[in-house]
Amino acid sequence: MEEKALLGFYEALEQASEDMLQAARNGDWDRVVKLEGACAVLISQLKHAASQRELAPEEAKVKGRIMRRILHNDAQIRYLAEPWLEDLDRLLAGTPKSIH
């Protein structure tokens, strides 16, 4: 039963990453940052829980699939964030955005 709780942390992280991706697709970067903070809390809790228990082999496979989806979501979020980060860099540097 406690292994299910441990797997639940991975599932919660996956859901948070999906929520972050949706927020990024909507251009809601404030929400992305807020969800990133929630992920940091979940990761901290997960580290503590994982230090106390190990997943069963079948649950480890589920964890692997979840982690691949999280990494895929993260890559998409980074791709969507690149233009926004470039605009932010220009804004902070005081350089106007060039229009082609």
UniProtKB/TrEMBL annotation:
Keywords: Bacterial flagellum biogenesis, Cell projection, Chaperone, Cilium, Cytoplasm, Flagellum. It is found in: Cytoplasm, Cytosol. Pfam families: FliT (PF05400). GO terms for biological process: bacterial-type flagellum organization. This is Flagellar protein FliT. The lineage of its organism: Bacteria, Pseudomonadati, Pseudomonadota, Betaproteobacteria, Burkholderiales.
